[in-house]
Design brief:
A 3-stranded antiparallel β-sheet has the order 2-1-5. A hairpin with a 5-residue loop joins strand 1 (about 20-25) and strand 2 (about 30-35). The chain is built from 2 helices and 5 strands. By secondary structure, the protein is α+β, with helices and mostly antiparallel strands. It binds flavin mononucleotide (FMN). Its cofactor is FMN. InterPro entries: Flavin_Rdtase-like_dom (IPR002563), Flavoredoxin (IPR052174), Split_barrel_FMN-bd (IPR012349).
């Protein structure tokens, strides 16, 4: 196979996609789709997510410093897509 030179990018594919849920200090909750997720450590268990500052969830998580990572099933593909394009 011939070597192809691709433009530089930070995108690694395929990657798992997760649904991240969070709350702000007023108790308003939110859910959004995240692909930039990774393992930091197994003991203690730590994961990382990268969130663009323009996301509503960014503000919520900055306020509470808490979030939950949910692993969607194949049946939830449409919901995952929706949460990845629609903000409140
Ligand atoms: C497949 C997919 C992966 C995404 N991954 C990320 C991500 O890792 N980080 C991020 O900031 N936004 C990511 N997004 C975009 C957000 O999910 C999207 O902007 C969402 O509407 C933000 O919701 P919020 O403004 O209510 O927080 C992704 C979108 C899709 C469709």
């Amino acid at each position: 196979m011939k070597k192809r030179n691709l433009k530089g990018s930070v995108v690694l594919n395929p990657v798992p996609v997760v649904l991240v849920t969070c709350k702000n200090l007023e108790g308003k909750d939110n859910v959004f789709t995240v692909a930039w997720v990774g393992t930091v450590c197994s003991k203690p268990p730590m994961l990382s997510i990268s969130i663009r500052p323009e996301r509503l969830s960014y503000d919520y998580i900055k306020e509470t410093m808490e979030f939950t990572i949910n692993l969607p099933s194949k049946k939830q593909t449409k919901e995952v897509d929706f949460c990845g394009v629609r903000s409140r």
